[in-house]
Amino acid sequence: MADTTTDPTFAEVLRAAEVVAASLAPTPLQSHPLLDAATGSAVLVKHEHVLPTGSFKVRGGVHLAATLTEAEQQHGLVTCSTGNHAQSVAYGARLAGVRATIVMPSSAPAVKRDAVAALGAEVVVRGATLGESAAAARALAAETGGSFICPTDRRIVLGHATAYLELFRQAAEQGVTLAALYVPIGSGTGAAGACLVRDELSPATRVVGVQSEAAPAGWRSWRHGAIETAPSQTRASGLATTTGYPLTQRILQGRLDDFVLVSDDAIDDAARLLATRAHTLAEGAGAAALAGLLTPQGPGRPGRSADGPVAVVCTGANASADEIARLGATSSAA
Ligand SMILES: Cc1ncc(COP(=O)(O)O)c(C=O)c1O
Fold first, then answer.
1. 36: Cβ–Cβ under 8 A, 6 or more apart, which residues?
2. Tell me, what's the pLDDT at 290?
3. Which of 55, 102, 290 to mutate to test the pocket of ligand 1 (most atoms within 8 A of CB)?
4. Which CATH class is domain 58-148?
5. Domain residues of the chain, as ranges?
6. How distant is the alpha carbon of residue 119 from its chain centre?
7. Are both 10-56+154-326 and 58-148 of the same fold?
8. pLDDT surpassing 50 at residue 152
9. What is the distance in A from the centroid of ligand 1 to the CA of 92?
């Protein structure tokens, strides 16, 4: 039975990092002068999209693979996802040689469904939203005896936290103390990991969560200090959650310094900036952190500098055909 009651600790993040480093190379933390000029801030980009599967989520799957229970190994894994957690669990299951069944909503991009199948997992399309797919995945696990893996399983949070261990260590090696770190939030695993590591390694850095205003369940939950649901209409599939998640919300309460909402158009603008100023193809969720920096509520809006260098995490590059087409469109700010 997954442990959902105890918060992950920094010591566990350090151990997870050893596991993850055995399979995955560190990702770069880089500045891009044109991006600095466009944002009016000194911005370091953590390029998590260069990992296998094209997103930071693979860290969770790799850590999960090394920490499976006997039942999980025997009966296989069942989970639900719009795509990147799906690929991560499929990747981890393949590493561990166990079966994985992934329930995906019909709204998940075809490119992500194909990627999951290519990793050898069984794809079951059920439900229109992630919330509906989650219910279907739990039912399927109960029917088949497979183990349901919650997208916020603490082993997955620990795997994702390793991105931030790397980031803060790299910033220190570069002689940079970050004023702020912007992290996209769907289920909140990445931001929770960022907060856990920040508390130990860089207490002066503000961690700011960013979510689409078209899928604000996590934001509402954090604001109100209670698990809340909200419809998801965002184009950014990685942010298309419909509920707050208890474990990550508990970690974020009291630790996350701010949480901003951005429009999907602002996310597209940020994706265009990453493509044209930072040589980076980002899917919507992967561009959301930069959109958060540039939001009128944020310190990095053009013409106004942040209090110091900031970091944004490009969490994923699995752009859909529509997202790629929108890169060529005119900026919504134009
Ligand atoms: C590319 C990308 N970025 C950000 C997120 C949000 O991460 P989390 O659900 O851990 O908050 C996701 C979630 O799937 C994602 O795929």
1. 42, 43
2. 98
3. 55
4. alpha beta
5. 10-56+154-326, 58-148
6. 20
7. yes
8. yes
9. 17
| CATH assignment, 10-56+154-326 | 3.40.50.1100
83, 89, 94, 99 alpha-carbon torsion, rounded to 10°? -100
Is the pLDDT confidence value at 302 over 50?
Answer: no
d(CA 86, CA 77): 11
Query: If you measure from the C-alpha of residue 302 to the centroid of ligand 1, how many angstroms do you get, rounded to a whole number?
Result: 26
Is pTM, for the whole model, over 0.85?
yes
Q: Which atom of ligand 1 is nearest to the CA of 81?
A: 14
CA–CA separation, 87 vs 68, rounded Å? 17
Asked if 130 contacts 82 with a C-beta cutoff of 8 angstroms, the reply is yes
Distance, CA 236 to ligand 1 centroid (Å)? 10
User: Is the pLDDT score of 150 beyond 80?
Assistant: yes
Q: How does pLDDT run across 199-246, given as a tens digit for each residue?
A: 999 999 999 999 999 999 999 999 999 999 999 999 999 999 999 999
Residue 77: which of 57, 97, 50, 105 has the closest Cα?
97
pLDDT at residue number 296: 80
**Which tens digits make up the pLDDT trace of 243-293?**
999 999 999 999 999 999 999 999 999 999 999 999 999 999 999 999 999
